[in-house]
Amino acid sequence: MHCRKRILAEMIRAIEKNETVQENIDLRKAIAELYKVWKFDATAKTIRNCFKRGGFSNQTDGSDSDDEDAILANLKEKLKTVEGN
After folding, report:
1. Running DSSP on this structure, what letter comes out for residue 40?
2. Is residue 82 part of a domain?
3. Residue closest to 21 by CA, chosen among 33, 30, 10, 35
4. Residues 17-25: what's their mean pLDDT?
């Protein structure tokens, strides 16, 4: 989710600056984004959510993932708005 968020934000910035939007991501770019996510975005909360979604936790509280889904939905809406303009 953090990778998608970073990529969408980068696409939105490019569109706002009237730059070419790179739709495909090569392996080098993907690794660079994963590194940034691990270094800056991956918190203990994020890791717990990954284990929950993977079925490795017996906890049923999904409030954290709901917050992340809302953030991603907001970014997708902004992308649609920018593409419409």
Report:
1. I
2. no
3. 10
4. 84
